[in-house]
Amino acid sequence: MIFSSSSSSLRMLSELSDWFWQERLWFPEGLGWADLEDRDGRVYAKARDLWVALPLSLVFLLIRQIFERTVATPLASLLGVKETVRLKVPHNPTLESFYCNVTKSPTQSSVASLCKQTGYSARQVQRWFRRRRNQDRPSLLKKFREASWRFMFYLLAFIIGLASLIDKPWLYDLKAMWEGFPVLTILPSQYWYYMIELAFYGSLLFSVAFDVKRKDFKEQIVHHVATILLISFSWCVNYIRAGTLIMLVHDSSDYFLESAKMFNYAGWRHACNYIFIVFAAVFIVTRLIIFPFGIIYCTWVYPVTIYKPFFGYYFFNGLLMILQCLHIFWAVLIIRIAFRFLSKHEKVDDDRSDKDETDESEEEEEAEDQNYVKKNGPVQNGHAVYNNNHSKTE
Predict the structure, then answer these.
(1) Helix, strand or coil for residue 38?
(2) Where primarily located (predicted)?
């Protein structure tokens, strides 16, 4: 019975796979998988090649750990990255249970209820939750390590991509990417460029639960998934030339952003601000001009002059449009930050940063303490000081 059920499931999967990979979905009329069989010393991309990215993703995770400990940490010390000293809260089972199971930011009514349960004053409960939230926030060193890892990868990926494309005609004439499509042989440089990029974004998905979360966390997940699908799909159906150009455009600005973050965490405000302006300029040129009016034009408009549209054509361009929507979303944030700096000379702060990234400082606590003192009298270690008549001192 079990054997029969397994055979039925395998048969269904096989039928689903055959339907999904049918030639009329992924190729122009008159072409198919047989045209991509290796022959006469010519090698073509194959779907099974993508399995290489899985172990490579694990290798990237290992390299990242080694890099962060042996390179990023000493570099952070050299640049003067200062750790925030966080005060640990006293253990309180009632408050800890509420923090973990209900909310990290209790309302006034919840604070009043917790005061009755714990015997704490409202001020003590609020301070406990503030310090408890700070304990869970990522440290500057953690954020610096992440930024430096991504900076190293994006810079190296851009150099590798540029080196693999510098002598290719489709880098200078985008229409050349379709010459002979889809019967295009794969070059070793293109193979490794693809596998490295795919493995890196795979490693980002694996590590997303441990990395610093920002306001655009969901958009980042969508971006990573769309990128992995785009890379995988373009490989399977031999959109290799378009894929390498897309990856190069994306890598061209990202290392500027990560370096700006590194200087920001190190407290080098001027360096951070000016590098961010350079990043904003490169981002706008590559993501809002070259990508939509150059690459998408040559994948959406030009191909239909060569062959009739097919499902793969719409699928590929649909993924590109998802990326472009994300580009516009991020561009709005970037332009807003850059405008603030250029017009008002304010410091550059990442609008994508979430509250969970930033410590609620002791200065805020001190200011609130002063307000509390004015209303209720002095405090000592979070407790109001009482006189012998059991009334608050003036």
Answers:
(1) coil
(2) endoplasmic reticulum
DSSP 50: G
User: For 122-135, how does the pLDDT look when each residue is reduced to its tens digit (9 = 90+)?
Assistant: 888 888 888 878 77
Residue type, 208: V
Asked whether residue 377 is domain-assigned, the answer is: yes
For residues 124 and 150, membership in a common domain is answered with: no
Distance (Å, rounded) from C-alpha 95 to C-alpha 110? 11
Beta bridge partners of 380: 383
d(CA 385, CA 380): 6
What's the CA gap between 101 and 104, in Å, rounded?
9
Residues 144 and 105 in one domain: no
Q: Give 156's Cβ-side CA count (13 Å radius).
A: 11
**Is the dihedral angle over the CA atoms 67, 73, 78, 84 positive or is it negative?**
positive
On whether both 194 and 69 belong to a single domain, the answer is yes
- How many separate domains does the chain show? 2
Structure tokens at 187: 């070059």
Given a contact cutoff of 8 angstroms between Cβ atoms, the answer to whether 237 and 305 are in contact is no
CATH of the domain at 366: 1.10.10.60
d(CA 393, CA 378): 7
Q: Name the pTM for this structure.
A: 0.74
